[in-house]
What does this fold into?
Amino acid sequence: MIEAGHFAAFLALALSFLQAGQGLLGQRKAAGLSALIAFGAMAFSFLTLIVAFATSDFSVQLVAANSHTLKPFVYKIAGTWGNHEGSMALWCLVGIGFGAAGARFLSTGRPVFEARALGVQGVLNAGALAYLLLASSPFTRLDPAPLQGAGLNPLLQDPALAAHPPMLYLGYVGYSFVFALAAAGLIEGRIDRVWARTARIWALAAFVPLTLGIALGSYWAYYELGWGGWWFWDPVENASLMPWLLGAALMHSVIVTEKRGSFGVWTSLLAVLAFCFSMLGAFLVRSGVLTSVHAFAIDPLRGSLLLAGLLVFGGAALLLFALRASKLAAGPDWTTASREGALMGNNLVLVVATATVLLGTLFPLIAEATGETISVGEPYFNLTFTPIMSLALISLPVVQAWSWGKADLSSIWKFAAAFAGIVAIFWLAGIGPFDIPLLAGVGLAIAVWLIGGAAFELWRRAKTRQRLPQMPARVWGMTLAHAGLGLFVLGAVLETSGRTHTTIALQEGQSTSVAGWQLTLDDVESIEGPNWYAERASLTARHGGTVASMTPHKRFYPAAQMPTTETAIHKTGLSDLYVALGDGRRNQQGETRWTFEVFLNPLIDLIYLGTIFIALGAGLCVFGRRKHTATEAA
Amino acid sequence: MKAILASLLLIFAAEGPLADPKEEARAQDLMREIRCVACENEPISNSGSDIAADMRERVREMVADGQSNEEIRGWFAERYGDFVLFRPPSRGLGGMLLWASPFIFLIAGGVLAFTISRNRRPRTDIPAVAPEEES
It folds into this structure.
């Protein structure tokens, strides 16, 4: 069975080469057909891997190394992509899937352009498949087959993390198709309104799953690592943030190209960079050049092959860009204070923010080369990334009403006064009844400003309540996404400035009070799961009239010889009471005292709600005004 | 009564917070900035290792002792090297480049963007098109 999958993957490689040749020669139909058949072959190939995992076929080396008969069924399936080889196979599947989707849905009225995009996608897919088959083949047999597998990395045995890689890859690899569109547009020397109308849809198709994938990873880190936080500025997290930031810049810049025909050079550069940074992310995560808490499947040789791929594809695209940039047409004139200027400001901030994350992530490596070892972490990003991003967030509600070409600046003082007023309210509240630090006050003001600003812009466009439902999906999408950004900022500021963290130690039967809660340790017992055993503490938490029972455990996975933390979280609606079980220590009297890390995280759900709003809003923006577009195209 | 006594005892037994909430908050902020020397990439506030517990204890002692954040960071850097600080020092060429670059990028990019937009300034009056009018 797995041999058939192996063969199908080779078939997909051959078809990708064919698709590349046909596409670059301008044969739209032939390249599209190759793309569709390649997808069929790769889907079958990936299915054989899933079947091998689902049936625990330990004669397949990958299954023996990463699965176990006692593992719950859903994690056997998810185990397919919970390792290096399988995740690269998923990367290939998604890349070929985007090629096939392009073959099916691209309709720009420019067959040669479409053929070239499919051709470039074929080249990218062939590269990924060659890497899969030659350097990280998941199809190797093992003889004799062991009776039992070594088990999945227990940290990955989790619902959020089962869905995290497919989502993330839909985003990363989705940008490969945007890259292909940009390369095809550059070959033709036409990055214009027709190009942008198509590229925008695909850029959003990558942005939405990337956003959700990052959010899933963050949520997993929150409840699984037992650290109480949701973002740690770890290199692996930064690796996913960089393509996201560039993707956000791209989906704003492409609007200028779509509506005005301007910014073509810049938009195509961003389209190329978004995928380059996705590949850079894969390289950073897989090569082990950086120390990370999340690093897995590390192999220096594979890392250098990924780096070579990045340099070849990225270099070729940038060369093409350099050759064609001067030939691209510009749109109508505009002044600095215009919608064009505002979106340029948005892009400036997002690109500088990306550069900051890149610098902070790679700097320890650079310093190491000069013989110094330093660390760059949260305080650095809080003092650089955060204020720079704040500039864009503060100006957003002001500039989103600006006109193309030339903005009407007559009401700018009203906006300035409104923002200053909101900041003043939070500062006064901070001095008065609440304990809000000054900077947190500014953060909260920005959050309210963003949410209010999004609602205000929707209202400004609708003018009357009757017209609200008739607003185009894109306007609703923009409103939702910008309000979601505000919700995210609100959650992030509240959680960062308002969380409390206490370490307590309790014997069975004892109580203590933490962060306004009375915690009683009822008992600690040993329990067993399908492929783990655990110590489970039962706590009763009381606060006013609320009584909650909480059962944090510490699991141990014997197959992998690895412990994991299973935190207990009680949601009150306003905050999360978060308890992680630590070690049990016996004192001289023979009594065991258990340590617990207790966090009170105010309104942390807003961070995830905001992120979902952003993804939802971006998703809505895919739907244009169909009729209008149709008549305009004709 | 027994329960209260027991929980009182606990404050001394466990790795306890400082009595003054302001000092404890300062200590916790510092703990998030200091890297555990035995772990992959974790601040001592998160790590479960014994050395991290000792380092946390040391931070609390120094905070209670009235030492400034600067002095506490300096003490750890002297003992374990700059590696231990998640807030990298800004001294030397490298440190200055690291801290100043984001703002240099922003200013340089801003000047560049402004110049580009000035050069695109029209010779004739340009019509303003409201975002809701163009699609």
